[in-house]
């Protein structure tokens, strides 16, 4: 297999058996996926789509019922493949009696880093993720967001070739999520491969080079952002009207596909094929003040929802 493929998944199946009656709950149904090296790749889908299951199989925490997985050109079960990978779980659960510096030093030793490297790298990483390098509290006293930052520092510690991050923005405040986006961009610019899952498509759209949509254990689309968005040419005009008086004009509202209240004003969203001129003329005739007219292009979330609707 070419080293140009960082992650390869073929015909991956996984079914869980739940409850006393061992009810079968399929999680993955023949997943096929390739992730090229050097990409920031978004593995996207709603909660329960099978993203975490696929990731846990990739890194050896779960066993597949059927299928093959490869990391950096080797079967993912191979220790040499996993030695070049950093993993951040969806819900980090660390040794809560340790302080963050102690935990990172422990992880570094397991990764084969020497004492001098750790002495320099651990404080720098803690500061980089927004934690005080001199923090003396044990991690059991940390918030979810602080634990997420420790997890990110742990993933960065050994500077691996491939990062597998399960919901890396989970538990973070808006500043933290912005920082994560900047970090993913930086890793991509350094030639690292980043494979991250998310159910928040708007945030993923801002950072990934390529994305795959997972729904009910199946891959329903994959491609670059240009390819995914280019296949959905639908776009809609948005007409923002001052105040909410336009909602009393039934004839005008019927010209729109959606009527939304937006910060005390009213947003008229037209059908994809509709033009804004008739609405603008009707507003002028009714004596209503127009704030703006803009063209909204399809977002990654729009594309995903349409693909799901086609799946039925």
Task: Explain the overall architecture.
- Helix 3 (100-110) crosses helix 4 (115-128) and helix 4 packs across helix 5.
- The protein is 33% helix and 30% strand.
- It has helices spanning 51-58, 79-82, 100-110, 115-128, 144-156, 174-189, 201-205, 225-230, 250-253, 277-285, 300-311; strands at 5-18, 23-36, 40-44, 66-71, 74-75, 85-88, 162-166, 193-198, 210-215, 218-224, 235-241, 258-262, 265-269, 290-297.
- The two termini are 36 Å apart.
- With 312 residues, it is of the alpha/beta class.
- Strand 7, helix 6 (174-189) and strand 8 form a beta-alpha-beta unit.
- The strands form 3 sheets. A 6-stranded mixed β-sheet has the order 6-7-8-3-9-10, sandwiched between helices. A 4-stranded antiparallel β-sheet has the order 2-1-4-5. It has a 4-stranded antiparallel β-sheet with strand order 12-13-11-14, with helices on one face.
- The longest helix has 16 residues, at 174-189.
| Biggest sheet overview | 6 strands, mixed
> What's the overall average pLDDT, rounded?
90
The rounded Rg comes to 24 Å
Amount of helix: 25-40%
Class based on secondary structure composition and strand pairing = alpha/beta
Task: Please mark out the parts with pLDDT under 50 across 5 or more consecutive residues, or reply none.
Answer: none
Strand order of the largest sheet: 6-7-8-3-9-10
Please give a handful of descriptors for the protein shown.
single chain; 312 residues; alpha/beta; four-stranded antiparallel beta sheet; globular
